[in-house]
Amino acid sequence: LFSVKRRKYRLPPGPAPLPLLGNLPQIDKNAPFKSILKFSENYGPVMTLYMGWQRTVVLVGYDAVKEALVDQADDFTGRMPVPFLFKATKGYGLGISNGERWRQMRRFTLTTLRDFGMGRKGMEEWIQEVSEHLRAHLRTFKGKPFDPQFVLSSTVSNVICCLVFGERFAFEDKQFLHLLTIMSKILRFNSSPLGQMYNIFPWLMEHLPGYHQTIFGYIKEARDFIERKIQEHKETLDPSSPRDYIDCFLIRINQEKDNLSSEFNYDNLVSTVLNLFFAGTETTSSTLRYALTVLIKYPKIQEKMQQEIDTVIGKDRCPRMDDRKSLPFSDAVIHEVQRFLDIAPLSLPHYALNDISFRGYTIPKDTVIIPLLHSVLKEEKQWATPRFFNPQHFLDHNGNFKKNPAFMPFSAGKRACVGESLARMELFIFLVSLLQDFTFSCDGGPDSVDLEPEYSSFANLPRSHQIIATAR
Ligand code: HEM
């Protein structure tokens, strides 16, 4: 069957698949992106692999990824309807939808994120406020070692809370802690072996008992929490002065109530809010955590950032985005942290909504498409020392910031991360303000720090380290 398809369509080349299992036995579960990159040495930058029965085309290297996602954007914008995510969002929202629903939700989210300078409080001010609470919390450790994972993920979730609910929660708030815990369990389930089983046999597992039923309960709890917040917003809404994302959405629902093709409805609101939490917390907080680990590993880089920050901003005011252009070294370090961590090596799966012609091949409808971001962020052709942490990748000879189009941790094209500008604001303001107030180290010294990430949840995640924040 596989080879008949290959002849009929002139599929991109790839290794011979086994019946039912496809190429899965040849792929390293702990680092699938590495096995896939290895295949491309034999089969080139556009390859067909079979993940079980699922036909998958992988794009390798900057040229192929850019040509598909940017130059042929209309063909490559589809998203795979991952069954578990479909279940969690009931098929609504921005993250896994396609067509008109996706277009309307995406445009609205981008505009609302951009316009939030005009709201009661802009995102920049919210992030500055959250960063003050983060630093106050770190001071309570009084220079003793702690694991920064929890405090950073609460901090970053709080930014999404500010955006969507217009409020920030205290670190000790029981309701908030519960929401964080269940969100993290839901996210982890998606990539667990049971979650993978669900993604292959959803109709079968739907009615079987097991841990997945507990997770479905958590999804209901998370949705109930969001629905309660929406109800509170409805009761206090002043259409002339929207406070946050939910207010803006409710106003649009009302404006478009007579428009039959409108996607502004209650289900899309609940699921898009859920998307923002799922996509916007673990990614940003893990990147921040990795940045601290890198600075502990390379104390000279940390010192140089602090000197630059002290000279340009001083210690008496919170950093703002305007400062970024005057802090080229710090900006380069943050970019290099993202390049080196490579948090989403496989991006999120795209999908052929129709047959696609690409580089003389046909990618048939219903094929999963993986833009291998790992292969772009670590490509020999694009970076002087791709396997080493080197902020010079983003600096010219005069020490000015230098862009590189192969910097694609947020992917590229029409489906690229909708939260990119928010995430970049968070990384910059949180890190710069942390370095104004603290020097980071660890008990075992720089040599004890392992920068090699662990692959899990479709992501390269930094290893856990106990760190010390010494007040400056
Ligand atoms: C999608 C990376 C932060 C919301 C994505 C994708 C990547 C990504 C690789 C897939 C793009 C594609 O399919 O081509 C990151 C990284 C982040 C980050 C590295 C932080 C360092 C955020 C934040 C938010 C967010 C803060 C929320 C405000 C989303 C959403 C999508 C997405 C909703 C789906 C977009 C769509 O399907 O149209 N992100 N992200 N992300 N991200 Fe992010």
Characterization of this structure:
With 472 residues, the chain is α+β, with helices and mostly antiparallel strands. 51% of the residues lie in helices and 8% in strands. It contains 19 helices and ten strands. Strands 1-2-6-3 form a four-stranded mixed beta sheet. Strands 4-5 form a two-stranded antiparallel ribbon. Strands 7-10 form a two-stranded antiparallel ribbon. Strand 8 and strand 9 form a beta hairpin. The protein is globular. The mean pLDDT is 92. It binds protoporphyrin IX containing FE (HEM).
Describe the protein's topology:
Layout: H1 2-9, H2 32-43, E1 46-51, E2 54-60, H3 61-71, H4 73-76, H5 83-89, H6 99-115, H7 123-139, H8 149-165, H9 174-191, H10 193-200, H11 202-205, H12 211-236, H13 245-255, H14 266-280, H15 282-297, H16 299-312, H17 328-341, E3 350-351, E4 356-358, E5 361-363, E6 368-372, H18 373-377, H19 420-437, E7 438-441, E8 454-456, E9 459-461, E10 468-471
Parallel strand pairs: 2-6
Antiparallel strand pairs: 1-2, 3-6, 4-5, 7-10, 8-9
Helix pairs in contact: 7-8, 7-19, 8-14, 8-15, 9-12, 12-14, 15-17, 15-19
Bound molecules: protoporphyrin IX containing FE.
Protoporphyrin IX containing FE binds at residues 79, 94-95, 106, 275-276, 279-280, 283-284, 287, 343-344, 347-348, 350, 409-411, 415-419, 422-423.
List keywords for this structure.
472 residues, alpha+beta, 4-stranded mixed beta sheet, two-stranded antiparallel sheet, 10 strands, binds protoporphyrin IX containing FE
